[in-house]
Amino acid sequence: MQELMRKHRRVILGFMLVFICVPFIFFFGMPSIQKNTGVSQEEVATVGGVPISEAEYRQALDRMAQMMAQGKPERPNYQEMVDSGMTENVLKQLVDSALITLQEKSRNITVDKSVLEKQIRDWKEFKDDKGVFNAEAYNDWVLNMKEWDTLYSQMRGSISRQIYMNAMLSIGNRVSDRQIDKELEADGTKMTIKYARIDLPVTPSDEQIQKQFDENQEKYRRPPTNTAEFVAISLAPEVPQKALDAVKEAREGADFAELVKKYSDLTSPGGDDLGWRAVEENPAPHMAPLYALAVGQVSDPVASPTGYVVYKVEEERTNADTSAREVHGRQIVVNAALSEEERAARQAKAELVAGKAKVSDLATAAQENGLTVLRAAQFTSNSTEIVNIPRQDVPLFRSAIAAQKDDQVFKPIRARANLYVGKVVESVPGDIPPLEEVKTQVSNDVVNTTKRSDEYKNELQALTDKIKAEAKSIDEIPAKFPDLKAEVKQTDKPFTRKDMLYQQQIYLSSTDIYDRLGKAEPGTMSGPVQGMLGDQWFVQLVERTAPTEEDKAKWPEERKKLREQAAQQGSYEVMADFSQDLRERMLDKVPVRRNQDDIDRILGQGKYATKSETKADETAAPAAPASAPAPAPAAPAAPAK
What share of the chain has pLDDT > 70, as a percent? Predict the structure, then answer.
């Protein structure tokens, strides 16, 4: 648990600043005044009379899930967040936010209506591409906006909170030029090192493997095989007319190169020429139509990550070495994307289907909305291909749909190509395979368990202490400790502390290496160094190169980035200290009530374990009816001269 919390420390700190400390900020665009979505407004907790609603908790869980998922194919579900301790941390941050609210309100910060109106006019939605205020768009919005009380209340709370938090966090923004110069010098220093990984070999016996398997059979059980019924609502934009025109003219014999000039949105010279490509056995969905064409044929518009593509195969050949078919193709790329309005409309349609499916059945809901019920059969949590599901949607579909079965609530699943509404209609439990089938996995588990033991760690520590005492250079390690079979290697090229070394199979932090060797003399050996996988390494500096004049020429821009990063890190640290101080000063005096039953219901644990929605979702708080007066209309823009 503690290791997972350390792993997500930056996510937690960013979550505190972005979502908890300054909620509902409208400094970056138009807010949406949310209406009641039917989500229960039970209070999951109260802090000194400040409520934490179910909607707030769900929003915070969703925000945390998004932050945890950065760079990953899919977001964690609630159970994964519970296991990592992040759901408890979210609630803790919401309690901190409530404490901040109590402190902020005691300051009685007032925000005049004129400030709100000025900020509204600054929203990007009321400016053209050049940043000039668009009075017509502003006036149209003012005439249609009804819920002014809610909007002004939220904006006052947002601005008041930001004023208070800016004052609290201002000390973290102080960054000295001297410190920035040191950071630039360190970032530009290049190193070449020798390195050796120190590892005690572990060879599991047949008895250990059998014991691991017998005592942990459920771990090796095959996943259940599911069959689901669903409807799909495409997230692809409509085919642009010029893509259809390009196909028509190409099939009528027009010169494809001229059509590229006329219709393609590619700007790079020669970008239309795909060159010779070997026909892939399992190509990406947007490339498969290319390989299906015969010489001279033109494809229909093909949906791609950026819009639509029209392909033509001009030549084909058989590779003499591999006997594989190769094609030489060209492409016309037409950019296309759903507008926010179109995306919202399709999401609304999915939610409408889901709502109707809850009260009737999926077939009826699909028929009423002009959709077809499809079937995805015989898939597991490990499937990479599922019938009727585009490959790019498989990872999210297989995990999200598994949580929707029997009498559970239908909930739209947003994937890359489609929105899905459906549920698992049949699930066959997986069996436990024979040991021989999973023997490699079981053996690896024995090795990993052994390496996590105190006995192993103590033995490895004793060995590295001995190496440190007896080896004066890294090249002496293989000679003095031949049983280890340790290999001494050298980095392929110089690196800085900003570079990642895993591509060279060096699982060490380059920053850790710099901290040890960045100012040392060549030949200096350091170790043991803790590796990213829990192993131990020794490193030795071969060469160190100071930043060149060419490197220093880039420093003005780098200086700006470093200053921003240092200010952000300072804000993280000040925020963590500030929150800790609030808890220590206030929690003994402020009553905190926690509704564990509602929390269990939201997370799907305890008595709600079989009926919960397990994927983190965003549910907005309801808006209050509005009666506040609208801001004055803007004067019409002067005619262009």
Answer: 83
